[in-house]
Amino acid sequence: MAIKYPGSFLFRPLISVLIIVGIFFFSTIDGEEFTIEEATIEEIRRAFTEDKLTSRQLVDFYLDRIETLNPLLHSVVEINPDARDQADEADWERTSNRDRSSLGELHGIPVLLKDTIATKDKLNTTAGSYALLGSVVPRDAGVVERLRTAGAVILGKASLTEWYSFRALGHVPNG
Fold first, then answer.
1. Left if phi > 0, otherwise alpha if psi is -120 to 50, otherwise beta: which for 7?
2. 58 sits in which H/E element
3. What dihedral angle (degrees, nearest 10) is formed by the CA atoms of 13, 15, 173, 124?
4. CB 88 within 8 A of CB 124
5. CB within 8 A of 175, min separation 6: which ones?
6. How is residue 28 annotated by DSSP?
7. Does domain 8-164 have CATH number 3.20.20.100?
8. Beta-carbon contacts of residue 27 (< 8 Å; ≥ 6 apart)
9. Any idea where the domains of the chain sit in the sequence?
10. Global pTM value
11. What is the DSSP letter of 101?
């Protein structure tokens, strides 16, 4: 049974981030306790609007949790070296833009992508194979273009089986 989320093409990478990389951050927003571990995108956006949270803080929290949990989970294969800069840019855009409604729906929200999704940046796209390490993709994948347009911060790449298990006979991909 597949779980459907509104605009799932945008939210799947974020859901992976929130599940894989739980963060402990507490604040009060509209009189209610706010924790990153259980926050929805709307709650994070509200925290941004109310200046309770910045994109940089959110990225730093996720990077800290990745550093702590990844040696055990092996879930993240690569961190985007530009993630903090992207978060800083999102924060600057948010503070300098009086009309925040013009910002994308994922503005400043960090996402992890599977390693099969092409990004035209400093990240590798290897499909889990060392054979593709250092290869250069011609452009961002369509979903990455949409994520960037929506303002998402590309945090890094998530692990998967080599070649996404498409080379194994009788084996169904697990990613």
1. left
2. helix 55-73
3. 30
4. no
5. 114, 116, 160, 161, 164, 165
6. E
7. no
8. 33, 34, 47, 52, 53
9. 8-164
10. 0.73
11. G
Give the span between the Cα atoms of 60 and 91, in whole angstroms. 13
- Report the amino acid identity of residue 24: F
Decide if 24 contacts 36 (C-beta within 8 A).
yes
- Token readout for 62 is 């996720």
Per-residue pLDDT of the chain (175 residues; tens, 9 = 90+): 343 334 444 444 444 444 444 433 444 445 556 678 778 999 999 999 999 999 999 999 999 999 999 999 989 999 999 999 999 999 999 999 777 778 999 999 999 999 889 999 999 888 787 777 788 888 999 999 999 999 999 999 998 765 555 555 555 555 4
What CA–CA distances, in Å, run from 150 to 9, 52, 77, 170? 12, 21, 24, 38
Residue with tokens 């994948």: 141
